[in-house]
C-alpha cells in the first residue's frame, strides 16, 4: 500500500509539473526545493528495492526536473564527489591569510570564557594570603603555642 501511494504521489507530481521547468513557472520556489530534496535521493541512491526508483525514472519530466536542478545548483555533481575546495592556483594559505590568527584568537576567547565561568560559579576561587620572609607562610599565635 505504501509503494502504491508513493507511486501515485510521483505520478501526480509529474502531472502537475507537466512541461514546465519548475512547479510555478520559470523560477524555483520553496515547493521546488522540497520536492527536489525528496526526488534527488530517490533518483540517485542505490536502493535494495528499486520499484519506486524505476517508476520515478519512467516519469521523464521529473527526471529532467531533477537533472536540471542538479546542473543549475550543483554543477560539480557531474562525476566529482564534492565541490572544488579552492579555485585553480589558490591554496589554503592564500585563501585565508589570517587563519592561524583567527584560530588562536578563538582558542583564547574560549579559554577566557571557561575561566570566567569557573570563577563566577565558584568552582575556582582565589584567596589572598600574606607570605612571610623566605616565602614561608606566617605563623599564627595558635600555631606558636602548639609548637611549644
TrEMBL record:
<dbReference type="InterPro" id="IPR050931">
    <property type="entry name" value="Mito_Protein_Transport_Metaxin"/>
</dbReference>
<dbReference type="InterPro" id="IPR036282">
    <property type="entry name" value="Glutathione-S-Trfase_C_sf"/>
</dbReference>
<keyword id="KW-0812">Transmembrane</keyword>
<feature type="domain" description="Metaxin glutathione S-transferase">
    <location>
        <begin position="6"/>
        <end position="69"/>
    </location>
</feature>
<feature type="transmembrane region" description="Helical">
    <location>
        <begin position="104"/>
        <end position="126"/>
    </location>
</feature>
<dbReference type="Pfam" id="PF17171">
    <property type="entry name" value="GST_C_6"/>
</dbReference>
<protein>
    <submittedName>
        <fullName>MTX1 protein</fullName>
    </submittedName>
</protein>
<dbReference type="GO" id="GO:0007005">
    <property type="term" value="P:mitochondrion organization"/>
</dbReference>
<dbReference type="InterPro" id="IPR033468">
    <property type="entry name" value="Metaxin_GST"/>
</dbReference>
<keyword id="KW-0472">Membrane</keyword>
<keyword id="KW-1133">Transmembrane helix</keyword>
<dbReference type="GO" id="GO:0001401">
    <property type="term" value="C:SAM complex"/>
</dbReference>
Amino acid at each position: 500500500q505504501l509503494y502504491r501511494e508513493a507511486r501515485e504521489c510521483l505520478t501526480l507530481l509529474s502531472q502537475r509539473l507537466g512541461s514546465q521547468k519548475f512547479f510555478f513557472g520559470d523560477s524555483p520556489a520553496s515547493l521546488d526545493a522540497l520536492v527536489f530534496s525528496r526526488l534527488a535521493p530517490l533518483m540517485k541512491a542505490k536502493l535494495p528495492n528499486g520499484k519506486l526508483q524505476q517508476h520515478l525514472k519512467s516519469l521523464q519530466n521529473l527526471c529532467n526536473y531533477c537533472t536540471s536542478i542538479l546542473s543549475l545548483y550543483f554543477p560539480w555533481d557531474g562525476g566529482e564527489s564534492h565541490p572544488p575546495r579552492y579555485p585553480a592556483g589558490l591554496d589554503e594559505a592564500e585563501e585565508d591569510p589570517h587563519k592561524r590568527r583567527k584560530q588562536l584568537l578563538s582558542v583564547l576567547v574560549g579559554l577566557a570564557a571557561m575561566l570566567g565561568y569557573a570563577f563566577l560559579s565558584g568552582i575556582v576561587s582565589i584567596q589572598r594570603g600574606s607570605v612571610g620572609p623566605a616565602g614561608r607562610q606566617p605563623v599564627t599565635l595558635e600555631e606558636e603555642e602548639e609548637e611549644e
